[in-house]
């Protein structure tokens, strides 16, 4: 989901004080009438703004939109053009009614469905996307406000916007729909295209898909899934806060979230993951983010809570192993994050890059998992419902979340939130001595557990394996070291601490194997091409940079480096399989396993003896390197992947032999 522009505007409004707390009856109101022809891009729009206070009214507009007339109080009124907008001078205290007429031609939709950006305005026969951030109608930017949007388009075109559907009219010549919102914080976006509408009632909520004819067959599955998520989250949190939920396909390769609407690229509509965790995530944001607003200057909590309840919640539905796998994946991602890119959870505002996602989505979601362990499932569930009821359509911060859970748990949680929100990093646990001895009719087992400084207050799960089975214990570790004692009726064979990865911590050597993100998350990477052909080397460098996280770069090195001279700089090595095998042998790096099948391109992560991350890429030629630019970057969580050869990708993570947090007992 792309929410960067929404977040950026929200932060700006908070910091500049233009998010105002009027009663709904006193909010500025926008009455927008739009006439749209997607194929030609022609747009005419009339906006009536009521409740405008005195003084100059500054309005934004797109550079392709021409202001034709401005009227105040029913009379023509002068305005002053500005860069990216115009100013309407208003005398007297107000309130004033301002009417603006504008016309323009929307920029053409890029051929091939290229991404135009979340703040775009584009139009073509395949569809129209008018982002609220594109200033497709004159808008002041002040929030909150109310609006009514009426849009008309030629027959065969359907249009949709965030807000409640008030009216729809369809004739042989045209289609008109009217939408409204009583309290909005961002300008309404507008979507149109040759859609077929499918609709279902889910407990009084109108759920719709807007898909073109060739995708209409997927509507049933999407309506089923959306209905399940709306029902689920309503039961877990409280009533869905809007009357409608729309799933709209896009000719652009995007995934965008709006109030009561999600806009997804046509190419991903058929993919199973979109109907699963991705759609659940979008639905849940109507509670967290669009139902309870985020106090962005104090940190964005909504992505972590949404990830915990949607993505992780669906994983838990599949069983304890699936939930454990997701937690371990989050910890692997964090292990791949360079120390220089680590950050506090409280400082997360939006997903600017993958490094931010690891903190603001994964670590924050882990916080809620550990909070549930701290206070218990019943108190946690009660806290979610109370947070919703206390802050519906209000702005909330991390501090507000803490206070709510303190009330339901009847305990001080400041130390818990402080250590996970305000510290950079994570604890590292180690298992010290483990001993057992018989004391009369039972057995005394002692276990020493240590953590790296600064010490966290941690609830640590411990498994004690006995002849009759495994018994699980929960103990608190507050300092750098603790010795725990257990009495059992039979000897303990082994001890395993945090066996299911229930703590957010740094994984130890031996708990995780190399993955491609070890390289792609690094701020700077060296790339070595073993190809003699310069054109192949250029393609290899292009592929390397396509893999890197935003803000990171790969630079080619002229010749085979002495690995000791690279320092801590990760390395990408591209070449023929035989050349890569020789390079790996010369530098004491494990070669690619023989079990991997042949393919057009094979990539695998490894480490030098000094634990320097290395990514090997073997490709058949220039075309394999070029075609992998779009697909290979999606496998960052894998240790290896084989692409091409007419088969589904072969991928996986190197197996871990044994955990350093599990030890057999000594007497």
Q: What is the gist of this entry?
A:
It is built from 13 helices and 36 strands. It is α+β, with helices and mostly antiparallel strands and 667 residues long. It has an 8-stranded mixed β-sheet, with no helix packed on it.
Describe the protein:
Residues 1-21 form the signal peptide. One of its GO terms (molecular function) is metallopeptidase activity. This protein is an alpha+beta fold and 667 residues long. It has four domains: 1-194, Sandwich (Immunoglobulin-like); 293-421, Neutral Protease, domain 2 (Orthogonal Bundle); 429-507, Immunoglobulin-like (Sandwich), CATH 2.60.40; 517-652, 2-Layer Sandwich (Chitobiase, domain 2), CATH 3.30.379. The chain is 26% helix and 33% strand. It is built from 13 helices and 36 strands. It has an eight-stranded mixed β-sheet, with no helix packed on it. A seven-stranded mixed β-sheet has the order 30-29-31-33-32-34-35. Strands 16-17-18-20-19 form a five-stranded mixed β-sheet, covered by helices on one side. Helix 11 links the parallel strand 29 and strand 30. Helix 2 (219-236) packs parallel to helix 3 (272-284). The longest helix has 22 residues, at 354-375. It is globular. The chain starts with a helix and ends with a strand. Residues 8-22 have low confidence and may be disordered.
């Amino acid at each position: 989901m792309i929410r960067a522009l929404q977040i950026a505007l929200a932060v700006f409004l908070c910091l500049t004080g233009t998010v105002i707390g009027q009663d709904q009856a006193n909010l500025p109101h926008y009455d927008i009438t739009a006439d749209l022809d997607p194929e030609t891009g022609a747009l005419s729009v009339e906006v009536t703004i009521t409740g405008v206070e005195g003084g100059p009214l500054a309005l934004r507009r797109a550079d392709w939109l021409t202001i034709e007339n401005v009227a105040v109080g029913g009379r023509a009124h002068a305005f002053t053009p500005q860069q990216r907008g115009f100013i309407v001078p208003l005398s007297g205290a107000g309130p004033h009614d301002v009417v603006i007429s504008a016309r323009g031609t929307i920029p053409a939709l890029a051929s091939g469905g290229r991404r135009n950006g979340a703040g775009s305005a584009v139009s073509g026969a395949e569809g129209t996307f008018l982002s609220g951030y594109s200033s497709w109608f004159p808008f002041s930017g002040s929030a909150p406000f109310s609006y009514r949007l009426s849009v008309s388009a030629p027959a065969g075109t359907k249009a949709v916007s965030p807000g409640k559907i008030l009216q729809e009219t369809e004739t042989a010549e045209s289609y008109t729909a009217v939408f409204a919102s009583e309290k909005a914080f961002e300008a309404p976006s507008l979507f149109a295209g040759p859609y077929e509408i499918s609709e279902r009632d889910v407990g009084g909520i109108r759920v719709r898909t807007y898909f073109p004819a060739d995708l209409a067959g997927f509507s049933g599955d999407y309506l089923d899934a959306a209905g399940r998520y709306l029902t689920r989250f309503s039961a877990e949190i409280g009533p869905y806060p809007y009357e409608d939920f729309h799933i709209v396909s896009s000719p652009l390769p995007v995934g965008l979230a709006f109030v009561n609407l999600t806009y997804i690229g046509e190419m991903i509509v058929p993919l199973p993951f979109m109907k699963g965790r991705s759609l659940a995530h979008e639905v849940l944001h109507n509670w967290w983010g669009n139902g309870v607003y985020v106090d962005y200057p104090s940190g964005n909590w909504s992505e972590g809570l949404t990830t915990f309840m949607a993505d992780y919640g669906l994983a838990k539905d599949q069983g304890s192993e699936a939930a454990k796998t997701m937690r371990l994946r989050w910890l692997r991602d964090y292990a791949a994050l360079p120390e220089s890119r680590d950050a506090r959870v409280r400082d997360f505002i939006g997903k600017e890059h993958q490094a931010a996602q690891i903190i603001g989505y994964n670590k924050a979601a882990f916080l809620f998992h550990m909070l549930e362990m701290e206070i218990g499932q019943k108190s946690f569930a009660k806290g979610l419902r109370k947070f919703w009821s206390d802050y519906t359509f209000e702005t909330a911060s991390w501090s507000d979340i803490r206070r709510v859970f303190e009330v339901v748990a009847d305990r001080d949680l400041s130390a818990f939130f402080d250590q996970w929100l305000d510290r950079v990093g994570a604890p590292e646990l180690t298992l010290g001595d483990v001993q057992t001895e018989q004391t009369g009719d039972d057995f005394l087992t002692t276990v020493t557990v240590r953590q790296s400084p600064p010490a966290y207050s941690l609830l640590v799960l411990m498994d004690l394996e006995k002849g009759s089975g495994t018994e699980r214990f929960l103990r608190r570790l507050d300092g750098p070291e603790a010795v725990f004692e257990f009495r059992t009726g039979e000897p303990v064979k082994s001890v395993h601490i945090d066996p299911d990865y229930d703590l957010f911590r740094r994984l130890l050597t031996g708990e995780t194997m190399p993955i491609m993100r070890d390289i792609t998350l690094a701020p700077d990477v060296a790339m070595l091409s073993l190809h003699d052909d310069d054109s192949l080397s250029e393609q290899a460098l292009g592929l390397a940079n396509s893999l890197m996280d935003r803000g990171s770069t790969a630079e080619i090195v002229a010749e085979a480096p002495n690995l000791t001279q690279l320092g801590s700089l990760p390395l990408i090595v591209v070449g023929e399989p035989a050349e890569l095998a020789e390079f790996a042998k010369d530098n004491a790096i494990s070669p690619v396993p023989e079990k991997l099948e042949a393919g057009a391109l094979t990539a695998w992560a490894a480490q030098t003896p000094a634990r320097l991350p290395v990514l090997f890429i073997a490709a058949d030629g220039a075309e394999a390197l070029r075609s992998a630019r779009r697909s290979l970057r999606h496998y960052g969580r894998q240790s290896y992947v084989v692409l091409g050869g007419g088969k589904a990708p072969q991928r996986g993570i190197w197996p871990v032999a044994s955990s350093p947090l599990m030890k057999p007992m000594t007497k």
